[in-house]
Amino acid sequence: TVASAGFGISFDCDVAPIFEQSCNDCHGTGGGLSTETCEDIQAGGNSGAQIVPGNKEASLLYQTLTGGSPQMPPTGPPLPLDEIDTIGAWIDSLTDPSCGNDFCNPPCTPF
Q1: pTM of whole model > 0.85?
Q2: pLDDT, tens digit, 9 for 90 and up, residues 34-68
Q3: What angle do CA 77, 83, 88 make, to 5 degrees?
Q4: How far apart are CA 69 and CA 92, in angstroms?
Q5: SS3 of 43, please?
């Protein structure tokens, strides 16, 4: 994975494609939590904040993907482990947006 190779994780490059394929049909901009943009996820949804920057284990988004309640996706198979790992690595790589960095999109590092 990108994370294990030591490259920076970017929402646009690494996480958004997972959400586009597996989440956006239900979690579009229509209501509740939207997974269409990093800013949408940062804003949270009906269940409140979804991510705790730098702490995937405390992040509701990660918990729901790894067996928490509610389980996501609610029907069908869970996301592949490498995709869950990528989302977790992205959350762990985030820092507080008040630090002045680009919270959502550190630069994509080419392979």
Answers
A1: no
A2: 888 888 888 888 888 888 888 999 999 999 999 87
A3: 115
A4: 21
A5: helix
